[in-house]
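ERR on first pass: missing label on line 2. Operator R.T. fixed the label and resubmitted. Corrected input:
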Amino acid sequence: MPDAPLVEPPVLERVLGAALARGGDLAEVFVEDRATSAALLDDQKIEELSSGRERGAGIRVVVGETTGFAHTADLSEQGLLAAAEAASAVAREGGGGVRRADLEERRPAPPLVEVLPGEVAKAAKLELLRRADEAARSAGNAISQVNAGYGDSRRRILVATSEGRLAEDDQVRTRFSVSCVASGDTGLQTGYDTVARTEGFELFERIDVEAVAANAARIALAKLSARPAPSGEVAVVLAGGSGGILFHEACGHGLEADHIVKDASVYVGRVGELVASPLVTLVDDGTVAGEWGAYRIDDEGRPAARNVLIEDGVLTDYMWDWLRARKEGRASSGNGRRQSYQHLPMVRMTNTYLLAGEEDPDELVAQTPSGVYVAKLGGGQVNTTTGDFVFGTTEAYLIENGRITEPLRDANLIGNGPEVLRRIDAVATDFDMTPGTCGKDGQAVPVGCGQATLRINGVTIGGTAA
Amino acid sequence: MSELLDLAEAVVAQAKPGEEIEVYVARGHDIDIRAYEGEVESLSSATSSGLGVRVLLAEDGGEGGRLGFAWAGSLDDDVVTATLAEARDNATYATVDPDVALARPDGVAPAELDLWDEDLAATPTDRKVALALDLEQRVRAADPRIRQVAEADYGDERVEAALASTSGIRAFTRRTAAYLSVSAIAGEGTDSQTGTGFSVGRGFAALDPARAADDSVTRAVRMLGATKAASGRCTVVFDPRVVSTLLAVLSMALSGEAVVKGRSFFAGRIGETVASPDVTLVDDPTDARSFTAAAFDGEGLACRRNVLVDGGVLRRFLYDTVSARRAGTVSTGSAVRGGFAGTPGAGCRALVLQPGQLDQARILGAVGEGLYVQSVTGVHTGVNAISGDLSVGAEGLMLRGGELTEPVREVTVASTLQRLLQSIVHIGSDLEWLPGVAAGQTLAVADMQLSGH
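pass 2 clean. output:
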């Protein structure tokens, strides 16, 4: 039984008409209804159980190169018409007159989950947190603090445009995370692990919250005996999974078309060129079911797609939203996303991953005489114009004589995108994905990153050990 | 004004026996304009509002209780009713905690602060558009090496908030803010470098497009030709903006909540020397010059001046009501909350490092040899307020013979926050009131590890 639309199509048609009353090339209504719940266990207490609800519409009017935008929490026809008028203020010509928008047939999109988190008893969610707390604390006496978090969201969206597009999605996401503090003679150290999927509460039938907690505790405990990370250029082996952040920063952002059209990327004009090692085939794919950055339609109503960005080291394409694609006379690649109805869409990644290679991951380490093994990355940042980027370790070890040895304290690594991508000299078979939150221009969206264990033949690590 | 407070009080009045309620209601108007190539690229305007409700179920005859929270991005009657019901339900699942409590008025009078610019709302959108276009044009015209202006933005906001509770809190605040922000790209041959500039104020008239433009152009142009430097130990001179960013991370370790939960390297060190004797750190939201000044904290208590580090000696942590009770002390009026969708926690709001005697040029001269850092990256993963480990990407200029010389990029600087505080050799007189929880000035730190090739 399909849900009723967030706003009835005849209302949407009238609002789109009003948005174009003063002229313009495109009008769009984006409607969102988001319900969230979150629970936090800290210091052995359920400190906070919270619920949130946000509902509203963002209306966009595009006139030539100019976009007008207004949003409202009032989904009545009157509220939407007022927002349409505000958004249309950028159309000054007064031409156009009232245009009709004929929307296509509705295609309801019920959520693709087995168990809606909103229908799960709150007590069941809290039980997960207690189990995690116990597992983390039993990992070692040095575990001095544990924070466990649960969160879910259901985001129903509807996009209607003056081109007649009418598309809907119902996105359910569930996450679970544990962070631990370990105390020892050397001070405090931290460990963190998380699982986050675009699926419902059935997630917890497959994942073991005790294992997530134990892993976070293990990382914190290991770092108590960590030595300072080295300083300078070293060979780096990135373990499969979170190492995908490398590609998100080293080239992902630089391949977003909004940076390209403004000449603010080191990858401008380089389609067809070798920009990475031939071992690199990089894909951005919003269609990978269940991954944190997955969806059926983007926030401009275009279907998610699998887009090959780099093939065997050669740059094949950028990522596009509607606005930037129009500028180039091509189609959107389904990468138009926004944090909420209060934001304009822009080009964003979905799930960005490197295709697996052929090496055995253990062999790859064994063939590295000395260097650093990064088991887990915490995040990164890039300047797309220069291509310089950093990525930070949260679990790393020395490699000595082809063996993983001592744990290292956290440090950032720094490199230049195309240069680091050229230095990838081995990719293994053990592919894995990791969830993350990507921030750009003040907007945060869920994304996935992935790769198999790989080696960079020389990158600068910023530790304190000379 | 009274409308938001009336709404908050109307919800509070629905408290049942054995129940305490706190309601935070906020409403904001904002406008954002981006200029590109002499045209308006985007113009967004909106009004948004919402509320956050905390319900505390008291324990029979005991202290503390159970807290539940719910929020909604709407002030419609049915939504407000549903939010209260949801907060009540959530409270029933929380762990009974003897330290949980709502703030109670503590007799401290709120500072008289005028944070509202009456003219902002009346300034026509056309003038704001013109300012964004002017900002972009200034950058493009400033230097032939400017290739692009990736972002040239004008933004402003008017925010009103009210807080009421069954424990006697009643607070209303309103503030305006306006900003200009610009990102320039300078180029020579195949080399491109970036620089950002901004200007912030309470109102339209306070904005300085010339300064924002100059700053972005200077910072981009002087980075042209930058290369990687050699690794080694050196004195690092940080730009005021970088210092503001680093102080914001440090401030997390000064939160009483982090301390009482064992998440701060400062825990148990009150009375000890934790920094160079020149370091005096004060959190003072009552200073109207601070961009983040506020009369009330996130629980409706008066904000106040708190001296955290005095002459290098750790003196105080910042507490909200609950963390203070856990630590056996009282709130320092330091509850912060991230809008209506967030709950209060203890934290800094307006941190200031007491300025020293020398301006930037004199500090550069006094240091002589080292690295001047104009911006850092990777702060959210590279600076850990729990362990103190610090490693960030950096770009800037080599300092030789007291002069800024060749530009440097793709390096990191590293230390620990603990060692950094002890190794401060100069604190600038050039205090800048920046957006964010901390002001900044030039700061020279000895013996940091520079990593390059």
